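Tutorial handout. Part one gives the primary structure; part two gives the three-dimensional structure as tokens.
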Amino acid sequence: MKMKVAEPIQTLEYLRDSGVFPFSTVDGVLYTVESIDVVIDTMRRYKKIEQIVDEKGMPEWSYQRFMEIASIVRGYENGNDD
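Part two.
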């Protein structure tokens, strides 16, 4: 079964915006709004890569397709070049 990313992203955005962060676990792990933002960003990048693979088919790899995926992984597509 294919992983659906939209619902978990919406759930994390809701939790992020609900004011429950920051919080720490019994083990002392601190969860912050920033850590949730990183997870959401990563999930969105995965979703874009999945769309490229679904739309353009595999295993036909080309340099252009590789660069498109690399730009998503690096964050350039969203203007995030850090």
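Part three, for discussion. The chain has three helices and two strands. The chain has a mean pLDDT of 78.
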